[in-house]
Write a structure and sequence with these properties.
Number of helices: 11
Structural class: alpha/beta
CATH architecture of one domain: Alpha-Beta Complex
Order of helices and strands: HHHHEHHEHEHEEHEEHHEE
Subcellular location: Golgi apparatus membrane
Radius of gyration: 41 Å
GO molecular function, one term: hydroxyproline O-galactosyltransferase activity
Strand content: 15-25%
Distance between the termini: 155 Å
Helix content: 40-55%
CATH topology of one domain: Spore Coat Polysaccharide Biosynthesis Protein SpsA, Chain A
Pathway: Protein modification; protein glycosylation
Number of strands: 9
Membrane topology: Single-pass type II membrane protein
Largest sheet: 7 strands, mixed
Shape: elongated
Cofactor: Mn(2+)
CATH class of one domain: Alpha Beta
Amino acid sequence: MEGLPTTTKGDKRWRSKNLQTSKPSLLMAFFSCIAWLYVAGRLWQDAENRTLLANLLKKNMEQRPKVLTVEDKLMVLGCKDLEKRIVEAEMDLTLAKNQGYLKNQLRQSESFSEKKLLAVIGVYTGFGSYLKRQTSRGSWMPRGDALKKLEERGVVVRFVIGRSANRGDSLDRHIDEENHRTKDFFILEGHEEAQEELPKKVKFFFSTAVQNWDAEFYVKVNDNIDIDLEGLIGLLEHRRGQDSAYVGCMKSGEVVSEEGKDWYEPDWWKFGDEKSYFQHASGSLFILSKNLAQYINVNSASLKTYAYDDTSVGSWMMGVKATYIDDNRLCCGSIRQDKVCSLA
């Protein structure tokens, strides 16, 4: 019995204490293991997400152009409006070159054309001006076969009118019916016919006329004017081949700043302290050469209009190298014997 190991009371207490302290350690180890697994799982998941995003980004970058386009840069800078204006300017420049606004190209294009017209004469009229049109047809404006023979001489004459605000209504139908009978209208489909829209009408007329007819000159006439047609043709023949010609009865005058008065100009403050209009041709009858009409066509969207069509055109001519020709024969209210127009 002496050789057998013996367990003392102290040994029992030490072993019991060892077991008690090892339980919390085991629990801590267990929770530490779980926490490690959780962290490792999150890290692995984040790594997978990063890998997936990197692959998607790489794929997207491969599909995008290597060099940023102008559109991308403008989108970043928030300059969409600038981009639009650049595109419009490029289109206008291309159109100007194609239509021969530049003098050298104008000469070149003329050599390839068949027979260039002398003039397109647009007689402004309105929905309520039937009697005035009949008066013109009965006096100076040719009708039927005579109108066709005049075109063979190189002169086109048309009544110019827009469309009703209510498209297709009785006003439009009456004009269409009248035109079907007389075939002497030039209808501006994109223009709304109204008294307050006359300054815009002059832009539509010159822009559309220069696109439809190749002529030396484009003439605007009011429908309350009697014309010496042969005298006008002779005047135009004398100036054939003259570029940048702005011909009319030149005038200036006071800018009316009081609302409610005749000839009131809403933009009166733009004309300075003197409140005087710049030199411009009277709206009753004036003439533009082809390149000036093309200038209006090309820049139509950006040309500012004033209260009246004659001052509007005069303001546009100030911005180009137009040759102002003050011809008293075009002063319809004058007492000259050789004038080519008179008030009806």
